[in-house]
Amino acid sequence: MEKEEYKEDSTCETRNQPNSCSQQEQQAQAQKRLEANLSHIKHRIMVMSGKGGVGKSTVATNLAVSLSLEGLEVGLLDADIHGPNIPKMLGIESRHVEGSVNGLIPVQVLPNLKVMSTAFFIGHHDEPVVWRGPLKHSAISQFLGDVEWGKIDCLIVDLPPGTGDEPLSVAHLIKNVDGAVIVTTPQDVALLDSRKAVTFSRMLSIPVIGIVENMSVLTCPHCQKEIPLFKTGGGEKAAQDMRVPFLGRIPIDPEMVADCDRGTPFVMSHPGSAAAQVFKGIANRCAEFIRFKETEKKANLERFPYRFKMHEVKK
Length: 315
Hints:
single chain; 315 residues; Rossmann fold; eight-stranded mixed β-sheet; 12 strands
């Protein structure tokens, strides 16, 4: 029996039949699905940190929610394969991913916010994900190519700490990442690693939107005096030294910890708090960056239409 050929669109009827096409044909079809999916996503932002424990997922979650509250259609991809915490932070741990003929349907959190995470596929929350690099790369590829993100304005990708497999996979698969947000704390050890994250982004030609200093100060509930538990100002200095924008200092707020455990976005439950205002400011800076990228692309297209199209094809 002759092999049935793949169709041109992403709904190829034979893509789930491993014996119907060769491995090369399957890879080619997977690449087509990936490119088709990414073509509907206007902008892609990576949220990174040089080390763990700096609140990167908290920043990614509240950034995505803030952008969605501003009216943007947002997708949030939890690419932290081994520590997928975003479903917990959004109170959607018990939700299930459904499928369709076109792929997986992400979990809808808000009217214009969708989420995908490995946490939806883990049988028990105590069960570890013991995967090597190639399997993690395959999972991220499926999250980008086999998930029906639809037409969205921005995809926020929450990466695991460091500069290893997952950041490289995302950069390789997406190719034209619009920018990276680097999260750090004021501690010297965190700042050292955040500078490495900036260098990593530059090595991959990913623009750095800016550095966020998380856990900056704690305001005493009695005297209102600011207490620098982890020092303060380090994030801004690192931004100056690395010549990248500084996006803001997020103060320590005990309610933020409680909201994460409850599965409630902090910017929605405490919109008037100092930390929520900083989150909104970071979201506004990211939105400004997106608008700048759109203007820049339009100007380049109008000025050098042939060269710009060739550049896109090359990528």
